[in-house]
Design brief:
By secondary structure, the chain is α/β, with parallel strands linked by helices. The protein folds into two domains: 8-163 and 251-281, no CATH class; 167-234 and 298-330, no CATH class. The chain has helices at residues 22-30, 63-74, 79-82, 94-112, 118-122, 149-155, 168-180, 197-201, 206-210, 214-233, 244-249, 251-262, 268-278, 293-296, 299-303, 306-316, and strands at residues 12-16, 35-39, 137-142, 160-165, 239-243. It has a five-stranded parallel β-sheet, sandwiched between helices. The longest helix has 20 residues, at 214-233. It is globular.
Amino acid sequence: MTRPAHPDQGPILLLGAPRSGTSWLGKIFDSHPDVLYRHEPDAVQEDFGLPWLCPAEETPEMCAAAAAYVQRMVGTATLKTSGIRPFFAKNYRGKLRQGLHAGMVLGLNGVAALGMGGRARKSLPVPDLMRRGHVPRIVVKSVSAQGRARVFARALPDARFVVIVRDPWGHVASILRGTEQGKYESPAHVDWILDTEQAQRHGLTAERFAALPGLEKLVWNWAIFNEKLIDDLSGIATVRIVRYHEFCADPLTQARELFAFAGLRWHRQTEDFIARSTNFNGRDRYYQVFKDTARAVNRWRQDMPAEDQNRVFAVLRETALLPLCPDFAP
């Protein structure tokens, strides 16, 4: 794929913790007819020759590997990265190719449902079917790039980065709900945080962490994840931080501002998708982008016991993330 000649043609990376609205934000960008969207390609091909936690002192030496890593993510066209519904009309495909692409995804999903394992299923190739001569705008969404964000920004000066931060109450409540529904074997994938500068700054030793209740482990996982992302990208003009609760309150205005920041012209298809995805009254599924947004953003206030809400707040006060969160009265 041809390298962009202008910063407004560079890749757009959408970053955030799991259960923070990254998939919805990704589909908002995907709704633009000139965008080629990749959904979590680093979860399909994990070994790209780049450390998961890139040491700050080695950032300059890793730039070439980081640029190659992103290029491989862009080229990862599989059922997971390219087959997430809803589908949108694309200028680089046209109606016939668009129909073929959607049919291919549906057919592969049917084949995979017959008993194919998770790893093999999400790695099934799905060609992009682009017309010759069309160069789309690349958007990559990741929920596991917190250890590489700094080197990405250094290696890709023409890229745009959007980081979405959800409050810890909503994040933790969603993780716990998913655990109850059997979506996760364990809700706390947190071993990595102990190796970060942020954990050391908070005195979060292995002994202290092991002694914490499960709820507080989840909050610290959220805190270190987001602190690392924001610390590593602070002061960079090509980065925007999005507060999830503010985005839910006025997604149309916020999305317009993000598109302008990224150099994308506004399109009616995006406006229509935002309207549909924020006023959904059907069955609430765990993995979906269609919701009653006004209800979903505050669901934790009803679902989480008051005692647990206060415990989350107690951890939050120890971090630098309080200004990014909605008001809370213990």
